[in-house]
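Input (structure):
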């Protein structure tokens, strides 16, 4: 069927949270099949008895989300509206009376997963609504025939679409010129994390990108609306705010502002207790080159994570030109070098596409060398997938075997890095927001957004804590909680002269969030801190904080530390693989190495006892 536009001429649709009248929603009744009896007769004969229909708002909706954080935010908004109208939300497909699939069009595997899910839904004869970038960017897909669709800018009308779909109608709401409101009801996947979309679409025209077909040209929310949203979510108890978009760096260029202006306005609204953090989302190099110093100033703020996701995609200028990325490798280096220099503890993540059409061995070697040079702690490596309708899909492809080999080689190079090797023994402040995949550890992040796994009660979720890093792994580090910070006092920067000893244990806006063990040159004056607020010195009075572990001086202590590190490594490997089961050994149980060690100790003990008894027996006989 053709896409159905909003039928309210001259208006942007219903206000957020309100349903339009039925005649304002375009619907296409499903065709009746003679061999498939309907549960509810649709005859117009008033004398014909009807089966009682379910009351709208009493059903359960299964929601499945693919793709980026922006998609996750859209799903949370849709769940919020459905929940506000009485629908139950479930992540179990068996419980769902209707399935709502929010899709991603970036890569072929995610779209294939969507197709599989649609097939399962149709086989289960469940009503289906598809949202997200796939139907928006590819409206004529065969898999979407007979399926209701919610466009990416129509998420505020999901209730209407769901209700009509449950009645047996096919509904498609696709086009709109206004952005959905930010004040819609929302059910967050993590109640402590608000994913805040600051704009939709982008200004780029990358030759491989299908998302532009779905999200369209840049459309930015106003600074006032974003500030109001931040105030609201902070009042709701949110502890992390993630700024999300297809290109954060392009924010505001369509409305006469820019990203630094927005960031400064948002930072001004963060609570002074330091317990709510801001994370800046993915940004492409072209649109932040002119604002690097201003962005660095924001990243140094104590309530902003010193972390940025800057995709490079290739280390070859020739490939970047073919991708139409609108920057050079040198400009990407400028971004990384400048932020690393100006922001202590800065962590940068990047993306690489292996096997883009025309990529030669030399092009790929330049990419490998770039990754080796910077040793990024996070690199998202993907193979090139031709997306239908994009210019890159018509380019001559690199053989798939070569693409796979290059992806494996670069992955091996990346996984050989040890980015956190120097953190053991350090004391860091972390912000704890979720339970780890193993169900045992809590997940926190340092100011540099390094993942720290700690053991503690779930009551620590949504809090900040001082931890000592006890061991490091490839993907995260492990820590022991020294103190939970329920409230941290902030004060204005002091006079130029300050106590040297206090300086060494104070968080300031130029710190990575760690308390230094050794005294460092004092630089707490107004000239260095810019008169900004700084965190009061951290109170780490526990003797465990700085004392040497006495057990390190004996064999038992050494064995215990080796066992702890072994367990930590197993836990991290399990988390990296996405394991969801609780592991008994992580609670202090015994693995193969532990059992072997125990058996060896017991055997040695019995041998020693036997030798002593034998010697005593011989002594008695000699007498």
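Output (sequence):
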């Amino acid at each position: 069927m053709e896409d159905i536009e909003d039928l309210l001429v001259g208006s942007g649709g219903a206000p957020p949270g309100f349903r339009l009248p039925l005649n304002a929603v375009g619907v296409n009744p499903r065709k009746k099949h003679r061999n498939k009896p309907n549960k509810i007769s649709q005859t117009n004969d008033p004398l014909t008895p009807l089966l009682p229909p379910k009351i709208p708002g009493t059903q359960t909706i299964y929601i499945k989300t693919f793709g980026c954080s922006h998609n996750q935010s859209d799903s949370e908004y849709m769940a919020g509206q459905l929940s506000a109208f009485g629908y139950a939300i479930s992540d179990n497909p068996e419980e769902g009376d209707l399935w709502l699939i929010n899709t991603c069009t970036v890569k072929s595997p995610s779209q294939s997963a969507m197709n599989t899910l649609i097939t399962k839904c149709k086989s289960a004869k469940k009503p289906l609504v598809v949202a997200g970038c796939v139907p928006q960017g590819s409206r004529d897909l065969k898999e979407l025939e007979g399926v209701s669709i919610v466009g990416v800018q129509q998420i505020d009308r999901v209730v209407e679409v769901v209700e009509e779909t449950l009645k047996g109608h096919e509904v498609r709401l696709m086009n709109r010129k206004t952005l959905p409101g930010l004040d819609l009801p929302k059910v967050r996947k993590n109640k402590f994390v608000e994913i805040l979309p600051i704009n939709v679409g982008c200004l780029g025209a990358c030759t491989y990108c299908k998302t532009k077909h779905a999200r369209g040209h840049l459309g930015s929310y106003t600074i006032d609306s974003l500030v109001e949203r931040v105030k609201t979510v902070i009042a709701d108890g949110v502890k992390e705010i993630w700024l999300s978009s297809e290109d954060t760096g392009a924010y505001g260029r369509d409305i006469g502002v820019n990203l630094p202006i927005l960031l400064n306005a948002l930072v001004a609204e963060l609570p002074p207790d330091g317990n709510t953090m801001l994370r800046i989302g993915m940004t492409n190099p072209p649109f932040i080159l002119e604002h690097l110093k201003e962005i660095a100033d924001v990243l140094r703020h104590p309530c902003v994570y010193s972390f940025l996701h800057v995709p490079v995609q290739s280390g070859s200028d020739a490939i970047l030109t073919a991708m139409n990325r609108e920057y050079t490798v040198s400009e990407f280096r400028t971004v990384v070098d400048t932020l690393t220099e100006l922001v202590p503890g800065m962590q940068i993540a990047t993306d690489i596409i292996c096997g883009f059409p025309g990529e030669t061995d030399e092009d790929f070697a330049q990419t490998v060398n770039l990754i080796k040079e910077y040793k990024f702690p996070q690199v998202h490596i993907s193979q090139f997938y031709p997306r239908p309708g994009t210019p890159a899909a018509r380019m001559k492809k690199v053989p798939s075997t070569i693409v796979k080999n290059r992806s494996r080689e670069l992955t091996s190079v990346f996984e050989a890095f040890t980015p956190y090797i120097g953190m053991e023994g350090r004391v860091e402040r972390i912000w704890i927001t979720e339970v780890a995949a193993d169900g045992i550890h809590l997940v926190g992040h340092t100011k540099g957004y390094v993942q720290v796994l700690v053991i503690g009660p779930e009551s620590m979720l949504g809090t900040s804590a001082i931890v000592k890093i006890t061991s490091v792994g490839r993907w995260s580090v492990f820590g022991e909680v020294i103190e939970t910070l329920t409230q941290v006092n902030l004060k204005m920067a002091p006079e130029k002269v300050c106590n040297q000893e206090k300086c060494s244990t104070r968080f300031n806006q130029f710190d990575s969030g760690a308390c230094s063990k050794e005294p460092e040159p004092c630089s707490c004056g107004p000239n260095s801190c810019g008169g900004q607020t700084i965190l009061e010195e951290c109170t780490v009075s526990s003797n465990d904080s700085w004392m040497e572990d006495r057990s390190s001086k004996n064999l038992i202590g050494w064995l215990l530390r080796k066992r702890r590190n072994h367990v930590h490594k197993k836990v991290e490997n399990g988390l990296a693989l996405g394991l969801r089961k609780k592991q008994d050994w992580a609670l202090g149980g015994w693995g193969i190495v532990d059992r072997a060690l125990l058996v060896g100790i017991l055997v040695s003990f019995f041998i020693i006892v036997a030798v002593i008894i034998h010697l005593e027996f011989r002594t008695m006989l000699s007498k």
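Notes: The CA atoms of residues 7 and 173 lie 10 Å apart. The longest helix spans residues 592-622.
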